[in-house]
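Tokenised fold entry reproduced for everyone:
>
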Amino acid sequence: MLKQIKQYFIKYKLRTRSDVSFGLKSAVSLSCSFEGKNVIGANTSLMNSSIGLATYISGNCKLNKIKIGRFCSIGQNIVNDVGRHPSSVFVSTHPCFFSPDKQAGFTFSNKNLFEEHLYIDSEKKFYVEIGNDVWIGNNVTLFDGIKIGDGAIIASGAIVTKDVEPYSIVGGIPAKLIRMRFTEKQIISLKNIKWWAKDFKWIKENFAFFSDINRLIDFIK
């Protein structure tokens, strides 16, 4: 009951501070930041994260220390914060031999002997960075230390273990390149335009150009 009351006040504070709505049984930490016009789906847990303008996150996601850019579409059942275990040199993969955190209820080590998480920043604030205008399908797992470039698409069911190039489509286990969304010339133009960084009013007024990449590029020129 106390946990539910705490969540109510956290969400209330975030709603009044930012234009964001929360689904039923969603959970969020006060350390999260929102640029606005965000939707967090039902049963989604979002902790210690940064969410860009107009990005929505669907239901049943479990995300921690993740930085997401603007205008992203995040599907259902997305998870990160998977951590790592040693796969060589160490005799055992069990955390009681390298971590003091007692994941199994006990430990033999009083200090960290192995880096369990990889970060994308020197301040160690985020495990994963997702760029702008990224679409992630359902049931995707994101490993620590990866960056997903602007305009990328992650196919449903993918396990992403390494960086994803801007405007690429990847899928599979582990995720591999399927194809690029646009030509190299078009991608360079989009990288220079950075439409998501423009004023929201400008985007709204010119959304008709977004149905054809060549029309948008010509319009900007």
Observations:
- The chain has four helices and 18 strands.
- The chain has a mean pLDDT of 94.
- The first strand starts at residue 20 and ends at 22.
- The radius of gyration is 19 Å.
